[in-house]
Each structure stands twice: as structure tokens, then as C-alpha cells.
Amino acid sequence: MRRTLQILAGLLGVAVLVPVATLAYTFRGLEPVVEGAELPGGARLVRGGISNVFVLPTGTGVALVDCGDDREGEAIRAELARRRLDMDAVEAIFLTHGHRDHLAACSLFPAARVYALEAEVDIVEGRAVARGPVPRRRSPATDLGVKVTDVLRDGDTVRLGALVVQAFQVEGHTAGSAAFLADGALYVGDSLFVEDDGGVRGAAFIFSDDMDESRASMRGLATRLVSSGAPVTTIAPAHSGPLRGPDALGTLLRDLGE
Q1: The domain 32-255: what is its CATH number?
Q2: Measured between alpha carbons, how far is 168 from 181 in angstroms, rounded to an integer?
Q3: Cα dist from 247 to 140, 166, 234, 241, 254, whole Å
Q4: pLDDT confidence of residue 25
Q5: Residue 231's pLDDT is what?
């Protein structure tokens, strides 16, 4: 009996240590996240639990890129208060994808327009789950009460007062993952991480539908933006600090090369 208990305890220890070690490996060596970090165009980063939320001024209010995993939205509330705005000042929410840690506070802003790519709508609205190793274990899907009001397609541009946001499809992390370009900042969700040595790495395998597809999508977008002359000076992921500099896209292409 004692031997059996020892074996069971060992198996339980392995079951706990393996996911902990996997998460530690996934999030190793990342650029630190600084609460309130300023980004181009007057945008700011706030920490919505384990995920970054980006607050972008529109001239009459603000737009959010993602909502984080804090259902109370405390960091978003604090940023709105700092700007002397109320909750109704959130005019739009741009969702990089439908994983739950990017959706939690969205329901706090029922008046906001909610933008997502067409391929991501079912995941955002809780009718489907993503296919990554961790997300697919959360079947059946969970409805967090988020409804997409405006479906985007690759290349679409949204104008909100003084703010202009262009959407790009970067499938791979999820089927409808998006990147959003505004004022020279490229908001990439979970499709990239910025490393503490100034490099970048691609989406995490354990959370992604197809890591290789995600890398290819990001390379393709970077090539496209370089060719168009888009002035990208900041790459802003959801789980690390941003990458800044005039050659941010060059860094992406170098580090995600074949």
C-alpha cells in the first residue's frame, strides 16, 4: 500500500511539474512588461491580468486592443480615470484573437464596437474552441458574453476620430488571429514575443493551432509592410514588453526567417 501511494505521489508530482516547466520555458527570457508604458500616438500599455491591454486615444474617447483576463478591468479603469474618462469613453475594442485571457473585461463596455476577423468570430463568441494543445482542452466552448459587432477582413481600415487602425490576418496562433497597425505601432497579440535581448520569437506551441503557420504569417506581413513603406516603429505583443526602433520589421524578418 505504501509503495502504491509513493507511485501515485510521484505521478502527481510529474503531472504538476510538467505543465509548470512547460510554461516557464514558454515565457522565459521575455522583455519585461512595464505598466503604463507609452506607445506611438499617445497609446499606453496596461496589464490586464496576465495579458497586455493597449489603450489608444481616438480624440473623443479611446479604443482598446484586447481586454485582458481581469474581468473587473481594474487596470483599464485606472487608465480611463487617468485620462479623466468614464467607461462609456471606450468606443471600440479590437480583438487580436479569441483566447479567454484576451476577452475577460470586454463585457464591461457594452457600448463599444467589437472588431474581429471573420475566422475568429465563433471562438470570440463561444461557439468554438481554438485547436492549440491547451485551448482545445477547454471544450466545450465558454461564452463570455462577447459579441462581435463588426467583422473585419485582411487589409480593412477602421477610422475612429483621429485614430486609423488597419487590420491584417495572421492565422496560425488561431484561425483568425489579427495584427493591428495604428500610428506606427503593430499590435500582434500572441503571434510574437519580444525577448529581453532585443530579438523576437514566434507564437508558443502549447497555445497555438499551428506554430509554423503563425511564423509564416508574421513573416509575410512584415514583408508586406516593408514593401509598402509602412512606418512601423513599435511591435507590441500581448505577453511581453514591446520592441522599439525603426528596424523593428527587419528584426522580425531576421528572427523568424526560414
Answers
A1: 3.60.15.10
A2: 8
A3: 42, 20, 9, 17, 11
A4: 52
A5: 92
Interior/surface letters 48-67, b for 16+ CB within 10 angstroms, e for the rest: bbebbbbbbbbeebbbbbbb
CB-CB contact of 191 with 214 (8 Å): yes
Q: Where are the domains of the chain?
A: 32-255
pLDDT at position 136, please?
Answer: 84
CB atoms within 10 A of CB 143: 11
For the segment 130-152, what is each residue's pLDDT rounded down to a tens digit? 999 998 887 667 788 999 999 99
Distance from C-alpha of 40 to C-alpha of 14, rounded to nearest angstrom: 45
Residue type, 56: L
Tell me what pLDDT residue 96 has. Answer: 98
| pTM for the structure as a whole | 0.91
Nearest to 170 by CA among 133, 216, 228: 216
Q: Which tens digits make up the pLDDT trace of 46-62?
A: 999 999 999 999 999 99
pLDDT score of 113 more than 80: yes
CA 214/CA 229 separation, integer angstroms: 23
3 state SS of 15: helix
**What are 32's three cell numbers?**
519585461
State the Cα–Cα distance between residues 39 and 36, nearest whole angstrom.
Answer: 9
Rg over CA atoms, the chain:
19
